[in-house]
């Protein structure tokens, strides 16, 4: 585990790379079918068939509807779409020849089967409305910001769930994204003329995405394109250094990541991560990103800090976009200054994305505030782990026994007996409420509630193996009734 005060005293190991994760099985393959100018058959004149005809026509298809007596809705739809032609008769097998897709609202199972068979003979993918057993493909729920199109499928398991999700995504994606996606199409040729290299092309499109996401409902304008082209042109001459982003991975629960952290993970070429990083967080990374474990462990073999810094620098110099993913917040007991200094010394741009630090995740889990008017006017974070693994000597003892403070102790399991003894010697009230919280924010979270004097015995008996956060101070008495507590 990292220590704030000096070099590692722990055994060494080498960074180890994770295999790119294999694609997990999919119920269906989402593909986007180009229908412009292609003939599509719709059999049946019902209202449901009319909806499909409209969707197909909106996607650019020439829709041939076969219906002896079409419903008013079908007639009305065809009236609005010149590409929909209604033939006032039942479908016949020959109608399917050469069609790109075939859709039917079948009157009964016999018709459904006959239609599916005819379509397959014609080698035309088929959909029979509401009869999945006869379908080669299905229509999902759609979020339409064309040319940006999002399709959602539950493989028929729960269409209403799909619809609910669609509503969520609709709310997330501003209407003006249609204009941005169109602009991307229009601007692509002008940008291609620059003849930029791969990395610069990626940078261009990442800047484009950042601009669109930050556009706040504004439509793209020609000055946006000018700015992007200028940035790309400026980059073209310069040697392309990569960049390093130190990202706070939070305490474990992936939902506690910031949107910025997720975005950094999504655009990374390489991710260097600690042991404390949960798999759920890593899963949010770009699929193609190389993932390297540079784990530091409390008392097991660790990758040396100098090796990590050297790796950061060499990847940055090779032009990679490196995410250094650290547990909690990078600025809290993470040896971040050493990594920043190494990157900057090599001229590599280095930025920080904050994360939820373990002490705050623990407080949230306990449902308490670390500060409290009158009772806790100071909050202090300390590490109880010196470079050699012992209790650090230069701690501010008067501050640590201040009854008006709440203290969060990082890396405090091994030295807990020594810490507690010293705090009591320095005058801390033995009845000071305390909670040790293991794996804060994760499903396997455990809490140990005791007075500070009793905590070492409780922890020795429980022997927790996950990362543990010790909180003590008067406000912790509010945590005594916390759900799931392991109070003696
Ligand atoms: N930068 C990290 C701290 C790194 S030091 C942060 O901001 O949280 C590692 C220590 O953090 C561990 O020894 C433990 O004390 C604490 N820690 C990290 N994750 C934790 C978690 N999920 N639950 C409890 N403590 C945690």
Can you summarize this structure?
Strand 3, helix 2 (about 70-80) and strand 4 (about 85) form a beta-alpha-beta unit. It contains 15 helices and 18 strands. With about 500 residues, it is an alpha/beta fold.
The level of helicity is: 25-40%
Q: Which radius of gyration do the C-alpha atoms yield?
A: 30 Å
Give the termini separation.
29 Å
Structural class: alpha/beta
How many strands, which pairing sense, and closed or not: the largest β-sheet? 6 strands, mixed
How many strands appear in the DSSP assignment?
18
How many H/I helical runs? 15
Which ions, cofactors or small ligands are bound in this entry? Answer: S-adenosyl-L-homocysteine
Q: Using the coordinates above, name the CATH class of the largest domain.
A: Alpha Beta
CATH architecture of the largest domain: 2-Layer Sandwich
- Describe the strand arrangement of the main beta sheet, using strand numbers: 1-11-10-12-9-13
Pick out the low-confidence regions: 1-8, 482-488
Explain this structure to me?
This protein has 488 residues and is an alpha/beta fold. The chain folds into four domains: 39-139, Rossmann fold, CATH 3.40.50.720; 177-237; 243-356, Cobalt-precorrin-4 Transmethylase, domain 1 (3-Layer(aba) Sandwich), CATH 3.40.1010.10; 364-486, Methyltransferase, Cobalt-precorrin-4 Transmethylase, Domain 2 (2-Layer Sandwich). The protein contains 15 helices and 18 strands. The protein has a six-stranded mixed β-sheet with strand order 1-11-10-12-9-13, with helices on both faces. Helix 1 (47-58) packs parallel to helix 2 (72-80) and helix 10 (305-317) packs parallel to helix 11 (336-345). The chain starts with 15 loop residues before the first strand and ends in a 16-residue tail after the last strand. Residues 1-8 and 482-488 have low confidence and may be disordered. Residues 1-2, 251-252, 276, 326-329, 332-334, 357-358, 362, 410-411, 437, 439-441, 467-469 line the site of S-adenosyl-L-homocysteine (SAH).
């Amino acid at each position: 585990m990292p220590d704030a005060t000096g070099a590692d005293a722990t055994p060494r190991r080498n960074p180890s790379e994770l295999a790119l994760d294999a694609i997990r099985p999919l119920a269906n393959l989402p593909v986007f079918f180009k229908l412009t100018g292609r003939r599509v058959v719709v059999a049946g004149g019902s209202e449901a068939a009319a909806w499909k005809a409209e969707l197909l026509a909106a996607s650019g298809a020439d829709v041939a509807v076969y219906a002896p007596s079409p419903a008013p809705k079908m007639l009305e739809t065809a009236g609005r779409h010149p590409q929909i032609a209604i033939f006032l008769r039942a479908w016949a097998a020959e109608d399917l020849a050469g069609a790109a897709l075939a859709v039917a609202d079948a009157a009964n199972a016999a018709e459904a089967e006959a239609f599916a068979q005819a379509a397959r003979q014609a080698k035309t993918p088929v959909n029979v409305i509401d009869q999945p057993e006869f379908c080669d493909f299905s229509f999902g729920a759609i979020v339409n910001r064309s040319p940006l199109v999002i399709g959602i499928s539950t493989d028929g398991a729960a269409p209403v769930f799909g619809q609910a999700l669609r509503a969520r995504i609709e709310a997330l994606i501003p209407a003006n994204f249609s204009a941005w996606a169109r602009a991307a199409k229009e601007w692509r040729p002008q940008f291609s003329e620059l003849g930029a290299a791969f990395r610069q092309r990626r940078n261009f499109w990442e800047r484009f995405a950042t601009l669109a996401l930050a556009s706040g409902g504004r439509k793209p304008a020609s000055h946006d394109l000018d700015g992007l082209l200028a940035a790309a042109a400026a980059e073209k001459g310069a040697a392309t250094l990569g960049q390093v982003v130190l990202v706070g991975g939070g305490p474990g629960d992936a939902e506690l990541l910031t949107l910025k952290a997720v975005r950094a993970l999504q655009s990374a070429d390489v991710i260097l991560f600690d042991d404390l990083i949960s798999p759920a967080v890593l899963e949010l990374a770009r699929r193609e990103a190389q993932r390297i474990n540079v784990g530091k462990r409390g008392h097991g073999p660790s990758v040396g800090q100098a090796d990590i810094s050297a790796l950061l620098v060499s990847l940055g110099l090779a032009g990679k976009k490196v995410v250094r993913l650290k547990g909690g917040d990078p600025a809290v007991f993470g040896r971040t200054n050493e990594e920043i200094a190494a990157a900057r010394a090599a001229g590599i741009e280095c930025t920080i994305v904050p994360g939820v630090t373990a002490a705050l995740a623990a407080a949230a889990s306990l449902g308490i505030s670390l500060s409290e008017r009158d009772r806790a006017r100071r909050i202090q974070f300390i590490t109880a782990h010196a470079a050699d693994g012992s209790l650090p000597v230069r701690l501010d003892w008067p501050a640590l026994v201040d009854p008006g403070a709440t203290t969060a102790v990082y890396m405090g399991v091994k030295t807990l007996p020594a810490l507690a003894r010293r705090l009591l010697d320095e005058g801390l009230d033995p009845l000071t409420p305390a909670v040790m919280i293991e794996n804060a924010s994760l499903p396997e979270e455990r809490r140990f509630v005791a007075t500070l004097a009793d905590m070492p015995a409780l922890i020795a008996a429980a022997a927790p193996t996950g990362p543990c956060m010790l909180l003590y101070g008067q406000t912790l008495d509010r945590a005594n009734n916390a759900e799931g507590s392991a109070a003696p």
